[in-house]
# Entry
Amino acid sequence: MPVADAGTAVLIVGGGPVGLTARALLARWGVPSLLVEKHGELSPFPRSRLVNVRSMEIFRLLGLDGPIAARAFAPEYGRVRFRDTLCAPDVATAAMTGVRAPVPESPVTGVVTSQDRLEPTLLGATQTPVRFGTELVGLTEDPDGVVALLADHRGGAGERVRARYVLAADGAHSTVRRLLGIGTTGPGALGGFTTVVFDADLRRWCARQPAGVYFTAHGSFLPLYPEGGWAWFGPTPRDPAHTDWSGVLARGLGPGTGVRAEVRRVQHWVMHAFVADRFRRGRVLLAGDAVHAVPIVGGLGMNAGVADVHNLCWKLAGVLHGWADPRLLESYGTERGPVAHATLRQAVANAELAGRVLHRRREQLRTGAATSAPAEIPWSERFSGQLGLVLGVTYRSAAVLSGDGTPAEPPDPGTDYVPTAEPGRRVPHLWLGRDRSTLDACGEWFTLLAPDPAAWVPPPGTPWPLRVEPLASEHADACGLAPDGALLLRPDGHIVARWPTRPPADAGLRHALTAITGTATGTGSRPVGR
# Structure
């Protein structure tokens, strides 16, 4: 089997939203990549439904937030509803925080959209190579890189491709994770589920009370696209091959509706809940469901994967372009591991809360105690109210300078979000100008926000990509900065360091960048292409 004449800097395994986002981010950094996906095309199934505010902030930096929002549902669909059947009145309802309406803590709003609408937009973000119908079946690593064995399912010859690094986003059943022998921690498989895609005219019961998800005692219903289409999902029956899916849908819709549902596709799948025991082995790094799979309630899984690669890709770029030491990559698992465990806990809690409401209602129906009054759910305004987990993540690693200069365990962000300019946190959203946020100041560079930019001229010969931006005095006060203070931001928008006042020269900008990247000369690794 021949070795490819030309390799690539990063081999991305998996063509879902996480792998496609990594491809777009690496292209922005000028890092060559090759994405391989074992299926012959993008997934035709809706799958993930929610793009939260943090993911939309990342897509905004890629210039994709507008196209994604244009194909998504209107904001009023950012709500969940609980009903006995789809065509029955609500017994409970709850808004999706950051989706139903804008939140002041972000320049964007999350959206409800189907994964099969999101993926084509991500695929079109760059022209870097993608090979569908190509599966990674083997990996070997040497001091200079990784050699991947690829199988072409379209009948072509197998191939060996050399890459400097491999980014595995190949899902909960990750081949790469299995080849590396990396175990997982958590409940594991939670059970088999089935998604049925169907067409039906349900406007009479849903048009005036829109929602992204309708939970019923007979499974959950989801509108797929603004122009029409529906999906149902629920536990897979014992004999799925002989199940009357039209009958299943009819029971979920309710008696006497007269609606005929036309089944289009049926997919069986397993819901997983785990976190991998490690995020990296050598030059191979895991992201998305390959490293953490969570229950779907609350829409956390895909979004956590997008945040994974946003954390990782700038570090890979720094190593490959030579201005960061490879040790910087160690911070990836250190930072994202605690977030993965917190995400799993929140997703399990979301599933338990939804199940509790449905169980309570079924008991009311069984005992004859059901009424038309809304169910009492004190948590209703907190369902998916997880901004603390989405926007309030605190990173503690060698890639952040904490107040005392030492790493610390990141706090569990919980569901509430309080903006702060502490090192390790995402920079608070503050308007720098018309439709330009502090988050928009980040990109393929480090950003220094300072009330007095002239006092922070970058040292001569600085090897790192760096931009200095003015920060209005009222924002400086909110960030705890004196007129000569500054915030140093990483490319992913997290705060590296905060200087309330200008520090001595030996503890300033060059010191901070040297400390987190592990190099002061820009020769931490052999640059891309050499």
In short: The longest strand covers residues 184-199. The radius of gyration is 24 Å. Residues 107 and 437 are 7 Å apart (CA to CA).
